[in-house]
Amino acid sequence: MERTWRAVRRRLLQAIPTIFGILILNFLILNLAPGDLVDVMAADEQITNPVVLAKLRESYGLDQPVHVQALNYLVNVVQFDLGYSYRHNLPVIDIIMDRLPATLLLMFTSIALAMTIGIAAGVAAARRVNSLADNVISVVAVLFFAAPSFWVGLMMIVLFAVKLGWLPVAGLQTIGVDYGLFEQALDIVWHLIMPAVALGLFYAAVYARVMRTSMLEIFGLDFVRTARAKGLSERKVATKHVLRNALLPVVTLLSLQLGTVLAGSVVVEAVFSWPGIGTLIVEAVSGRNFPLVVGILFLASIMVVIANLLVDLVYMRLDPRVELR
Length: 325
What we know:
Blueprint: H1 2-32, H2 37-45, H3 50-59, H4 66-78, E1 84-85, E2 90-91, H5 92-127, H6 132-146, H7 149-163, H8 181-219, H9 222-229, H10 234-272, H11 277-286, H12 290-318
Helix pairs in contact: 1-4, 1-12, 5-6, 5-8, 5-10, 5-12, 6-8, 7-8, 7-10, 8-10, 9-10, 10-11, 10-12, 11-12
């Protein structure tokens, strides 16, 4: 256990320069775009006086060279200050923390759904290879792998919300209704179903294909033949001996796709008007709210680094031969 904690601490120390490197890169790329925050303020407030514009740039530090602005921003980040949003008239960290729970709820629910469906479908297909069930699972997996998440979301809205009226169209919860704690939780779950399914089906299709291939490969190894020779049933062979080893490629793929899950939530949140980070960053980019954009990207990089560390720990649990380096 002590060796594991030492490895975790080492990985966290390695993550610090990575996160700050991402932060500097994002800051520089955004500052290469034409215009700045003062230009947006001038357009909104109809400010044309060049003296006033110069004073505004000086007050926001935009009159300084880019490398000086980047250094000042790094100093502020170390002090947990991500800047101030002119459009929201609030600190960036407060805006992000207000939207973050909704995005985390959507992300973790969709990942759990994708892992559950993908692993179950992959195991079922591998145990009945070349059967009707295997062919059906393969066709469905290819279908959802090819279908964009926003299209799946729109079709679900048309079918389950508009035509059948089973699920709410959009939002996190019903507006204008005073529910109790339990009823409010159920209402949020009811609103979460379609966004989580729309986001998770693509990854479920990927995991199903990878799990099937991994299971078939391990079924042909010597230790599996030995387990069968001992008289174990196919079910015990699959669950006790094959499944744990077959999960390793799926877990590796999950660690690589955590960033894309966050990126995919941007589109899904826009389709379902989900009040999370995705819709917030779209608003920030369209409004050229650079402090908010950089703050969201900084937070996203931290989330991906932490999630990858957790996935590595799961990987170590599945295969004790693996060590964090």
